[in-house]
Amino acid sequence: MLKGFIAGLAVANAFEWFAHKYILHGVHRPGQPRYSPVPKSMESHWAHHREVRKQEFSDDCYVEGVEHWRTRNEIMSLAVVAGVASVAFYPISKGMSLAALYSAGNYYYVHRRAHLEPDWARRTIPWHYDHHMNSNQDANWCVTRPWFDYVMGTRVVSSADLKEANPLGLPLPTALSKVLTQAIESVFPAKWVEQKPKLVAAQVEDEQQQESVA
Ligand SMILES: [Zn+2]
Ligand SMILES: [Zn+2]
Ligand SMILES: [Zn+2]
């Protein structure tokens, strides 16, 4: 059950990556609009991106709730995916089936809260802050945890203060977090928007700040 559940979380995270990239953003075609197999969801998602950049990461569709067509679109899409996946996984693994339901619910909780409470988002899911606010919005595809962005090389960090403590995106003890980050990033390194010298300066600054607090 637990193994299946964890495998299910990994599958759901991979799905977040693929669905966000290929369904919500669509595939770029020179001289033509982007292609998505679900054009309505793509339209809804790009409207979300425009709103978020205008409103310093807030999106009023979550204030309005199900009255807003984009909120309904997101909830319906998640319900369909969770429904199909949980039924399909059930004969193979009840843990995976449960993970599909949990992941869909968690996705909605995290994404909604992020755009209602931008400060929470910066602290808790900085990868999604980068997704919206970086000049290149075609990166940082994962929303709940950044796992597949590390695997696929699409975690693009804009600044040191928006770098998660570890690639699992989990609140872990500092020492464990550091060891884990080194181990994972030796195979799947995060990419950085800024130039190296700037980055080192920012990190030094960060450490000095931490020391002065301690
Ligand atoms: Zn997006
Ligand atoms: Zn393009
Ligand atoms: Zn968003």
From TrEMBL:
Give one GO term, molecular function aspect: oxidoreductase activity
Q: Entry's InterPro entries?
A: Fatty_acid_hydroxylase (IPR006694)
| Fatty acid hydroxylase domain: residues covered | 6-154
A GO BP entry: lipid biosynthetic process
UniProt-recorded name of the protein: Fatty acid hydroxylase domain-containing protein
Task: Please spell out the taxonomic lineage of the organism that makes this protein.
Answer: Bacteria, Pseudomonadati, Pseudomonadota, Gammaproteobacteria, Moraxellales
